[in-house]
Model the fold of this input.
Amino acid sequence: MAFNVDASGNGNFDGWVLADSYKMRSGGTPMAASYQDHQHIATVEWAGNSYMSPAEATRVIHVFQGAAGLLRGCVAGFRDKTSIGNSTVTIDIYKDGVSIVPVVGEVSQTLTLDTASVAYTPEAITIATASLTCAADEVIEAVITYSAGTGTLPTGLFVGLVWDEDYV
Done:
């Protein structure tokens, strides 16, 4: 059953609004989707210790589709358990095969998760600028390195991104 809803003023919804189609209006003119901002959040997880496999150490998280976009932030953490002993896992973020994590002096600002890291507590990964500009077909990857040391590596690694992207 289809019906029309006309409302004046501001509309706030607590929950989901589902529609087969909709038109947003600015004044009396329909507002095209290309005028709307689109923010996305994606999280990729490595099951168990699968990040230790060379084939799994680098994962594509997103390929930009819109003409322009901004990478807003990155986080990483562990789902199951944290490192034991002196084992560490380091996460770097790449755009088109090049690290976007800054180097201060001669030290990369990659994120290292170790015994101080707490399960289910995402930690921020510093990127070169607060909002990194991206364009269509640019690829964002997470690159993982680890050192088992004399301890136990954590399991359930996850990396999350937040980005804005033009309508496609």
Observations:
- The mean pLDDT is 81.
- The longest strand covers residues 68-81.
